[in-house]
Design goal:
Blueprint: H1 3-14, H2 18-40, H3 43-59, H4 70-88, H5 109-128, H6 131-141, H7 147-154, H8 158-175, H9 184-189, H10 192-198
Helix pairs in contact: 1-2, 2-3, 2-4, 3-4, 4-7, 6-8, 7-8
Length: 215
Amino acid sequence: MDARAEESLIRAAALGDRQAFDQLMRCHLTPVLRYTTRLTGSPTTAEDITQETFLAAWRGLDRFGFRSSFRTWLFTIASRKTVDLQRRQSAIVISDNTFEAMEVRTPGPAARTVEHSFLVALQTELGRLGYQARACWWLREVEGLSHDEIATALAISRGSVRGHLQRARSQLAVRLAAWGPDGSDVHEARSPGRIRHQIPRPTTEGRRDDSPAPR
């Protein structure tokens, strides 16, 4: 969806057009659900946070004001909802199966083994990062947000974003040293672009019938 079409939908939705908001939700549901799944490690919890995010967006469209992109605004809401959850819980459970549905696209069993092993290791090490470092890394490397957009989404300074990204990348580089650039297959498997391409897309299949809908 181009920026002009999205702006028209946002303005229509802000005036109460439910169909316009439904189009916006269909466009942005997957990245928001993917993000909350990564942060919480729980598909069920991520679904709840995503639903709360879109409910809050629907109810707060009159306050959007186009001060950021709509996508960044949704990530901002989702981040706040996740932080609220963290405050209510002693810890966020990191799932061991976040990447299990990834489709491996490298040819041959050896390459598939290397890539799967790397993704499992990456998932483990991401879970060991602090919340903001993990969120910064994910929004940058997987969702492709700029430093400014990440700063807006997480309500932190641009300098903090750079710091979190630097620490996350440094820690991942050390902890994933076994997957260094010595082998071309391994280097290809660990590139951010390839990781982004393989992240499983959450679906709404199995969504609870009693889940709230924007109104």
